[in-house]
Amino acid sequence: MAISLSENAAKHVQNFMSKRGKGVGLRIGVRTSGCSGMAYKLEFADELNSEDLQFQSHGVTLLVDPQSLPYIDGIELDYTREGLNEGFKFNNPNVKSECGCGESFNV
Description:
By secondary structure, the chain is an alpha/beta fold. The protein has helices spanning 7-20, 69-72; strands at 4-5, 25-33, 37-45, 53-57, 60-64, 76-82, 85-91, 97-98, 105-106.
């Protein structure tokens, strides 16, 4: 089981955490939402939860709750810029379908 960041995404996370001045890592999970069933959730974590699973990628600690892991196992987060748009791109090998707007997915 593995969760990873691209080098570009890791740099973005490290820069943001440095500007925040605190944080132990990036928490990644899923929630029920959207037209396809599941949506990703990302947040900067200031403390560890007892149930957190930890992964290291390019010097960044990634935290995942056990319930989310089956849906995102093997995912790589990238950080991209396309024209005026920039943000995280989720490269999830478990996805069977996505909604048209790209906000939710189904496994």
